[in-house]
């Protein structure tokens, strides 16, 4: 067998029960080989295993003919393997020159010297006296690459070398890789998501899918095959984008002007608003994904919504989410002792555990999954997490953790402990997991209002009593009880096979929204469907709608019967049961069949009568009970409801039927009832009809009768059967 600089055979790597690398085989004889794939496919695990940071369960890794799979990282480094890690990992307190001198050591015969590095990266020479924390992301990446080159490696392993870099720096890194390949001094294994870079620097590209090398193909063929890029990678190449014509640019600027508002720093000032010292123009055309100009307006409006276009790509069937490994997550830099106590208690009960660090300080910890790995999942890279703004860092890490955990299979449960910051971080990930996977948060805030932490998820909030700060007689008992509770839930969790068998026998589940004033309609619909469907009714009090949509996102529903959308009224007017801006989001993301209506949009909900804001004192009210006051909506408010709902319906790609009850939208909106106002209702209906774009899949229909009348119930059942597939025994 010919000697190759890198030869990997049948590599098997696990994280607990999660099978990360599944029989990976790869050969790099010389030059540059790119490995591409979506997030979560095992690319970083492959890097970590090659350089010794992760131990393989079985398989072979040979560098220049020598087996290294059982060696320690420092031994692998001495054999000539250089590593450029994802996230750079530079020392904040060391200057650039100190970094480089430390990496270079005292070797006199090295081909890569500090002086050669400065020639290759003149920017580092300019910044030689600056500390690592004072460098930009691009400068940190230059430093990380230089640090690896100074070891004169035979094999250079680079994990996402262009992640988060400006285009001009990406081009520089790309050219450097091409030059290294041409010089032939070393072989380079590049893990990269930028298809343009991956195909430019190497002749062959390995495509990784679900922990396996799906195929090895010619780089030029992959660069030219956009359909294959989309199918296997979920992205297109960033280069060779269609030019923007002057007409398109003019149209885009006109549309963007309807969405954005230009703020100025002071009266008479012409200086545009700056954010973090950087000017933020509002007229740039998006070009990374070739977004058609006609979609710019909706994209701009939706860009703040908590949506991830890649969710469908990375969706994992619920049966594959279930495992036995419990994730102990939290800020291990400040709560390490407490979190390790929970870990030890779980292990003593025979529960497999994997620790995940959510720290934002940048300090190293002993967690199985380091904070840098989690932070790397942020949409803008780990540099967005490790900043000097603590609040911004916590928010960014919460977002990164949510993206990280939704790509993790075989989870038995998630447990954490902390204060308000730790609770924010941990529950952000818990909320994206499917309902049914145990989630437990030991927190100092558990005795207060926890709605913003729990959302629509099944998170158990466990009051810590004493602060989660050190181990004492109280915290040890509370943390032990929490660990035992988690162990009990995991012990009773069905395995994937049992869940799949149960799913096949179950009635399909349908989510239905109800309010007291739409109860007769929902009861009648449920009675007509319950023989064949598992009818799950949700109280439309803000959290009820979110809970239904959480189940929808978890793929535990087969359809939505969203008859009561009153939460939209409270959101827009300011009631106590508001929806979030993501209302209808699950139907948009999943494409599940959706039947909706305007139930209880004739009212806004407040608490006791004396709690109603003064500006509404002259409005029409109904005292539902001493703690709930209902206020009749106006025509202008109804118009706003209709336009907002219509825009959300337009974003749905699945089958949609939206029904408008001409006889009233609630029990109080019937003839001779206090909220009966046909003219106000008609304004609502017309706003929806004018806003919604009709398609073969998207219909809006008027129905004669009140929402609680039999003709309306008949119309709901008819619409439901028209857009749902033939009955299948699955949830």
UniProtKB/TrEMBL annotation:
Pfam family, one: ABC_tran
CDD domains attached to this UniProt entry: ABC_TM1139_LivF_branched, Tm-1-like
Coiled-coil segments on the chain, per record: none
Keyword Nucleotide-binding: yes
InterPro entries, A to Z: AAA+_ATPase, ABC_transporter-like_ATP-bd, ABC_transporter-like_CS, P-loop_NTPase, Tobamovirus_resist_UPF0261, UPF0261_C, UPF0261_N
GO MF: ATP binding; ATP hydrolysis activity
Gene3D superfamilies hit by this protein: P-loop containing nucleotide triphosphate hydrolases, Uncharacterised protein family UPF0261, NC domain, Uncharacterised protein family UPF0261, NN domain
Domain ABC transporter stretches: 6-235
UniProt entry tagged with the keyword Nucleotide-binding: yes
Keywords, ordered alphabetically: ATP-binding, Nucleotide-binding
UniProt record similarity statement: Belongs to the ABC transporter superfamily.
Name of the protein described by the UniProt record: ABC transporter permease
